[in-house]
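Instructor's aside before we start: the two examples that follow are unrelated to each other. I chose them only because their records fit on one page, so don't look for a connection. First example below.
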Amino acid sequence: MNESNIKSPGVYINELNAFPNSVVPVATAVPAFIGYTPQALYEGKSYTNVAQKITSFAEFQAIYCLPDPASPAPPAKQYSPEYYLVKQKSQPTKGDYMLIDNAYYSIVPDPNTVYYLYNSIRLFYENGGGDAYIVSVGPYGPPSKNPMNPGDQIVNANVQLNDLMNGLALLKNEQEPTMYICPEATLLSVENNGTLMQEMLLQCTEMQTAVSIFDIIGGRNPDPILYTNDIETFRNNTGSQGLNYGTAYYPFIGTTVMQNQDIDYTNLFGGDISQLGPLLNPADNPNPSVAAILSGIPSGALTVTQYNNALINASKTYSLIIKHVLTDANILPPSGAMAGVITTIDNEEGVWQAPANTSIVGVASLPIRLSESQQGNLNMDAVSGKSVNVIRFFNGLGILVWGARTLDGNSLDWKYLPIRRTMTFLEQSCKLAAHAYVFQPNDKNTWEAVKAMISSFLTSVWKQGGLQGATASDAFSVDCGLGTTMTSDDLLNGFMRVTVKVAIVHPAEFIVLSFQQQMATSS
């Protein structure tokens, strides 16, 4: 209360703040997914090219998934890739295949029907995901009605670089996302994938609020010998800017996200059952039960699910085909799952805990099992420093995330992902709290208030284990004042400078045990 405003006799109460402002910690695990969805519509409003926040998979379904038809029709398929069985002259050396009546058939998809975002969101929530942003850049495109060549990398002509770049640009208006994820980036050509990754890193550098989680082209069906070529290509295409804001995981993961009911005969040969008949009901070994089922499908007397179950029971070949297709469709890029793993680690232990040496829910296999020596060249690269985190299989332990590095692997400051994310967490938390002091008098009272506010926040982080040091003074220091962080010119120009130094906890990546023999001693 300003005493000059008091003009009449009486008793006046003047309440004073006893406690300073506090720093409210920002959220650390809010991924932003960019890609294609079954739809983007809710209550008549389009959500295409809109950065929309969701808090659960149910919200994602409500906005981005197709509505289910009325009973007794089966639920709508949200993702329906198309696969072909292509007869080969000899046993294929690349890709999945199966033997039917002494003939080899490669199992390959129509590349224009392969998408990753929907299943990546499911993996995210299976692994403990929470709040997230979705940027739908459009619906699925038309199929090409042609299979790709066995062993080739999948390039979906419906996935356009400009669509994904425009979706990424929308996130410039959002401060909350802390991870940028684009699962369908690996469906671009190598050149376009590199352009998108570099743009993601530049935007992360500009925003200073998020890191980009990358998947690697070639991780879906790696060559057991020449897989290093895919790593080299990735490193050559990520540029040199903003590397400490990026992290990559390899290889893809074999999941259990899609189940038997998600794949049926409509996913084979573009839904053309006439091409399926010769495989299940060959002339030299007829199967009357299969013939009866296939002839009844065009009538639509039963549901697709009923016909599919009938075929599974009538034909072992059909059952095996569905199993192979399901396995192939379940191979997904790991970025969505890693966003869920990071969210769980952050919630349970803190952003400073490395998201490594932990399993991934819903992962059952890997397309390649790398050894310790093979991982060495991925984890450390003397030339580029672009570390790649490997997902590995360990006997008795299962499949674990075995790496926690950024792409800036040669930097002593930023080589580790938890270091980068912890610093972002501290910076953004303090930045938002300091907004309360904009336009306040640039004097000692304000300086002390800011120092006390930030010091209190950092003390709480230190107590939780986010900073290292025997005492709080060992863990951090906060300076603000004339002659220490500011000059007289700073005051005249309206600058208040605060210097914060923190001792971040580094992960123990290499544990070295030294053993030595000693002479026996008498009791």
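Example two begins here.
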Amino acid sequence: MSETQRPASGDGFTQAAGTQLALYALVAMVVLAAIMALLSFAIGDSSASGGGAIDAERNAITITLRQEPPQLDATRSTDAASFAVLGHVMEGLISYDQKGQLIPGVAERWEIREDGATFWLRDDALWSDGKPVTAADFVFAWRRVVDPATASQYAFITYPIQNAEAITNGDLPPTTLGVRAANERRLEVDFQQPTPYFDKLVAFITFLPLRQDFFESTNGRYAADADMMLYNGPYLLSEWVHGASMRWTKNPLYWNDEKGFLDEIDIAYITTDVNAKLNLFKDAQIADTDLVAPMLPEAMERRWHIDRFMDGTVFFLEFNHRDGRVTKNKNFRKAMQLAQDPSELVYKVLKEAAYIPAESLFPSWIRGAQELLRREHPPTKHEMNLAKAREHLELARQELGLDDFPPIVLLSGDTPVSTLSAEYYQELFKRNLGLEVRIDLQTFKQRLAKMTSGEFDLVLSGWGPDYDDALTFGDLFSSWNLNNRGRYDSADMDANIRIAQSELDPVKRSAAFGEIQRISYEDVVILPMYERGWSFVVDPRLDGLIRRAVGPEVDYTYAKIRSASQNGDE
């Protein structure tokens, strides 16, 4: 997904849970008083019913979101902010447990065959208006995804389904999609080619259901406001003040009593301001927050329990490969590749303890046939070489017929890390190549819009896993993928992606990913920057919060407020 959304130490998740000591015996009162004083200093008032971050009386917590979700219509969503909300208020055929393993969702069981799949839906899966979730709701939703009129940037993810690609290209009507409701409770899917990982795919947001009668009743305003949606997940979006706040309330009709333990989750703040969120956490106004490097000394002084996890996302500089852009020239891209070193960015500029330099389009945790892909197919070792960089730049100037290079537009988000990265590259390419780089700093929503319309030469971009398979990164720069914002187009790349999509031999499939990795480096499709990790803290009264690499990055569906009798448990 775009800019996410994350597995930690290779296992797919990190569960964050704090601790707080409580009174067990009269003889421990002196020790208890000292501990409680320390915790009071660290996170503010810890009264069991004191409101703020944790309100045990209401069984509610208060949290933040980094961004306003731009698109809650799952057939069109592309970003982590929207996925974070949808992951709590909606449910697809298959879901995730606390350890990141696939578990039944709306489908109580399923069968994946070489030619297709069958999903049997449970009787007790209901929409928030009390009507059952049926196989027809998935048929309608998936047809809408592939319909060219929807212009879904994630239509490509449905291409394993028969006729999906042809429909998206306008060659067939949406009704020819290889999915049908055999009856209300049985969904049948026909494959275009063998897709043994299809169960992983349908756990993704794009495959969520959508009920046709409700969608049509909104007159084009579906998902524009809280009352313009139906829900079938653990929570309902009961309030939405755009750009300011949200409220999720427990869905009384949700079938699974092993998820959705909290009665209310208040998103009182929507902000990327890490300092503001730190102060809110210190004042016990929010239940968890991320920490950036300058905050770690204070957090350690306060003796907070600091957790870290790798969120699976790889960040990179993406080139615009469209005609008329200097970045379409391979020698120009090669010059920029040789003039930079991601290690310098990570260790000398960003200095984030949970970041590591990126070496490839594929992050380090992605698996190949039998072990990590990076061990089976090591990425090309990158070395900075300014002399060669300047040689390539001169070749580019001659090929483009230029006396001087025009200013290069670097599109960036407005977060502190993005701003720092953009300023670093601006100075770096001026110093090493004499290029003028103009930074176009945009809000999250505007940056996505400009990426889609191609208004950039370079863009600070990132991609997080949509599902637990190397293809979630491997097909990003296929010519048919609308998330390929720079419109890179290579027959060699496409051919290897086709192999990776359909090859049943895991060794041959891994080799195709190795080729995709080689092409992305040798053709300079992107400049890898870093793999993102997070340092974070959680109020010790909250148990069961999960950080995921695949699925919603921060998952509160298993979270509970610790009871007084649990205080002190490790």
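The mean pLDDT is 90.
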